[in-house]
Each structure stands twice: as structure tokens, then as C-alpha cells.
User: What shape does this take?
Amino acid sequence: MDLNQFLSANNISQEDWDKSRLDKELLLDIEKDYKAYKGELHRAAKFLAETLQPCEQVHSVRWRVKEPSHVLEKIVRKRAQGSEKYEKINVDNYKELITDLVGVRVLHLFKSDWRGIHQFITDKWKPQEQVIAYTRKGDQDSSNENYSKNGIKVEVHEHGYRSIHYIIATAPTNNQILSEIQVRTIFEEGWSEIDHKIRYPNFSDNELVAYFLTIFNRLSGSADEMGGFVRDLAKQISVNESKFNEAEQKKQEHLAKIEELAEKLSKEQQEKQDKSNSVANLQREIRELRESSIPLLTTSNILNAHAGVDILSPDQIQAAASAVKLGAEPLGEMDLASVMSANHYIHETVTNTPLPDGLNQLADNHQSFINSVISGALPSDNLIISAPEVSQSKDSDDGKTNNND
Assistant: This one.
């Protein structure tokens, strides 16, 4: 390794080299060992990236293994700054002293996503050093308070660098590997990459460049804030739309129920109207039936038709029957001939057999019929006999009543 070329390529002044008090041969030994070890570091870095990517809040994961020249440059710079940690560095312990040989960057979209990622990392690995959150001067105090509540140390970075750093250990083989995980937003990553690209190695002390990089840093911070605001706004809009859709759905359900009830009511009203019409039709049929039906004759009606007197009561009919049986005089205006004539009609209608001539024979031959009326076996006023209209006429010559059946 040509020392002058190395110092020039890594922007290390001769003064800083002298302050480091390093032996060139030591750097060469470390470089040789590191190149042989680099393949194992690649596998460890890939494992970390694959483990971190499934975290819900993670947008993307980037990783790198430090180049040998950058390892040596860091050793020189730390020694020149008087770091006690690097005072006794050698080929056997540099892997434990330099904790970012493997670097993994976990990027997320919104600032508040760091909480979920922090929980994910601490669940998977135990931090080997104090977790540090680097912030910019002027950042919101609420963010710093949230870091402190989660056991994270807050440090203001002189260049406005924002990131949370974890040092974790993995052991894919017998050799433990220390790795650094950096968690930041995409905007912070963009600013950091631009800052590093421009500031190093040629403009690290240029005040004008530093001024505009600071403005850019503030813009990236504002972009992070705006990103969080837009997300919260979108969530609120989504909630409002969900409530509106829910209310609209309930409205449609109520309208459907109202329509169903209205249809049911209309159907019931129609059924009621149909029943009312049926009742009216039935009443009309009854009236027509009454007007057109053949008169129903009871014993009283028959006696009335043949005797030409008012309708007799059941007691009068039984008395009349007794008079027929005993040969006594008829009751009231009804004579024996009228009673026998009515009896004659009833007999012929019910039994469909002619009655013998003569009143005495009528009384003798139809004693059983009269007894039936008297005993109640043949109810005098409940005997329903369908018969045609009975017309009456009187013969003025013999005073007898003729009945046309």
C-alpha cells in the first residue's frame, strides 16, 4: 500500500496521520485479515436484511459491508481524534471495536413508523450498546420525549443528521459479528445520501455548501411532517366515508323495511276489501234466496192454510189433535173438519199414502199419527215440510174448505 496515495484517496492530511501514531504495517495486517473475513460479513448482512424486511412498518432494507479502505480510514481518523476506544486497536480486536463493519439501513415512510420497527428489533436481538436517536437542532420536543420513553438516548447531530442506531450481535458461526442497524425515513435517507455525496471528501468545511445542505435538511424534515399529516388526513377521510357509507346502508335498510310494511299493509287492506265484498255478496245471495225460495210449511202453517185461521201454537195443535181423537168440538173458529183436513194433508205429505174416506175412519186409522203429535215424537211446530204454495177457496154451497196442494 502506498501511504501517500492512501492518504490522498481518503482525504487524510499528513497532520492527521501523524496524530494517529499508527504503524503502516499494522494497517496492512488489518487490511489482509479483513479481506479474508469479508465473505462472512456479506452472509451476515444478507441474513439481517431478510430478517428485517417482513416487519410491517418497514418500506425497504439496504445493506453494505464496509470496504477495506474505509475500515483503515476510520481507524486513522479515530486515532487522530484521540479516541480511547481505538488506542489499542490491533488485528485481533478490530472486529469488536469497529461495530459498523456490517451496516443495515431500514427505511420507513412515516416518522411514527419507528415505534413498530423499534419493537421488532428489540424483540429479535438484544442491543449491545445504548440505542441512540440522532436528531436535528430544532426538532419537535415531543419526538425526543417519545424516544426517551422507549429507553433511547437522544443526541443532537451537528450536521442535522436524523437516524436511530442499534448495535446488535449475530453468531452464524463461532465468530460473533457486530452489526449496526440504522432506522430512518425515506426523506431522511435521501438527504443523508446527498449530504454525504457532496460534503465528503471535498466540501466538508465549505460554509456555503453546508448552509444549503442545512436548508435541504429542513425541507426533508418538513416533508416528513407533511407525509404524516397527509396520512392522518387520509385516515380521517376514510373514517368519514366509512361512517357515511354505513349511514347510507342503514337508510336503505330502513327504506326497504318501510316499503315492505307498506306493501304488507296494502295487501291486508286488499284482503279486507275482498272479505267485505265477500260478505256483501253473501248477504245479497241470502236476500235473493229468501225472495226466491219455496215457502217452508210447519204444522201450524198447514193448519192455518186449511182452517183459514191464525197460526196456532203447539199447545193449540195438540188440543186440536186431542179433539180429533176424542171426537170433541174444535177449538175456537176451527171445526173438526178443518183439523182433519189439515191432518189429512200432513199425513199424505209425510207418509205419501192416501187417507181413507170418512172422519171416523180417519180418527181410527190414524190414531198413531195423532198420538205422535200428542206425545211429542212428531213435534208439531218443528216439522219442516217443503211444499208448493197452498191456495184456499170456499165452496158456498156446502161450506167446506177445498185445498189445492
The first strand starts at residue 60 and ends at 65.
